[in-house]
Amino acid sequence: MGTTRVIYKEDAPSTSFWIMNEKEYPILVQTQVYNDDKSSKAPFIVTPPILKVESNARTRLKVIPTSNLFNKNEESLYWLCVKGVP
């Protein structure tokens, strides 16, 4: 990944980040976003949720909110899980 944090601004329709496959073989990548308890889904999706990244290639993933029920007076923490399988 090109970052350790992805920040979503409430007035934006989405945010994005880059992932890079530095291996000499393609990988299958799966992404999910979890609530702070790490067991339930967060009000975001990552698109594409599953993709193939060729060797020495990079691609951009987009984080999109699934609801607009955010508290405007406080920040929230969610966990972005990016799994790579050779």
UniProtKB/TrEMBL annotation:
It comes from the Bacteria. Residues 2-86 form the Pili assembly chaperone N-terminal domain. InterPro entries: Ig-like_fold (IPR013783), PapD-like_sf (IPR008962), Periplasmic_pilus_chap (IPR050643), Pili_assmbl_chaperone_bac (IPR001829), Pili_assmbl_chaperone_N (IPR016147). GO terms for cellular component: outer membrane-bounded periplasmic space. GO terms for biological process: cell wall organization. The keyword Ribonucleoprotein does not apply. The keyword Aminoacyl-tRNA synthetase does not apply. Keywords: Immunoglobulin domain. This is Fimbrial chaperone protein SefB.
